[in-house]
Amino acid sequence: MELNLLSGLLLLALLCLAMLPFAIPGVLEVLLALAIGAFVTAALIWFGWLPQDTSLVLLSLAMLTALSALLLWKPLRKLQKTGIRLQEDSAISDFVGTELILTELASKDSDSHIQFCGLEWRVRLDPTEMATTIEAGQAVLISSASVGFLLVKRKSF
Predict the structure, then answer these.
(1) Consecutive 10-residue averages of pLDDT for the chain (157 residues)
(2) How far apart are the first and last CA of the chain?
(3) Cross-strand bridge partners of residue 124
(4) Which of 9, 20, 99, 100 has its CA 20 to 30 A from that of 77?
(5) How many CA atoms lie within 13 A of 43 on its CB side?
(6) Could you give the angle at the alpha carbon of 110 between the alpha carbons of 105 and 115, nearest 5°?
(7) DSSP of 34-88, one letter per residue?
(8) Residue 115 CA, distance from chain mean position
């Protein structure tokens, strides 16, 4: 089976779209722009508006990729700034609301440590907590979590 320019462009576009879920910000926009450029260039070839000359196809792909990147730049940046962050932090963390028993004194001013889920975490009292310290052995709830760091509040009974 011969791989012509049209099928190569379609394959490129599909591969770019398949890699989107695994892309980091910055690369994601490039992959999306490249996929759009490849689809539009393939459509131009399909409808006979662009000859199957390799140099013209590559020029068209480059120009359409750049154009789609320019047109998508602001909307995608706006989406990233206002969208929900998919990192582990505060309200979206699975750890929020989990009860722990402190093994060290916890305060608002300095970090203490606790073993949790097989890892050692830094712990600090939540700024909204009324108390300034909580003694070791007391039950607390995780109010916010980020990588390696937990904010906790006194468990209310």
Answers:
(1) 78 89 80 94 93 92 94 78 45 74 88 85 87 88 82 81
(2) 72
(3) 151
(4) 9
(5) 8
(6) 55
(7) HHHHHHHHHHHHHTTSS---HHHHHHHHHHHHHHHHHHHHHHHHHHHHHSPP-SS
(8) 27
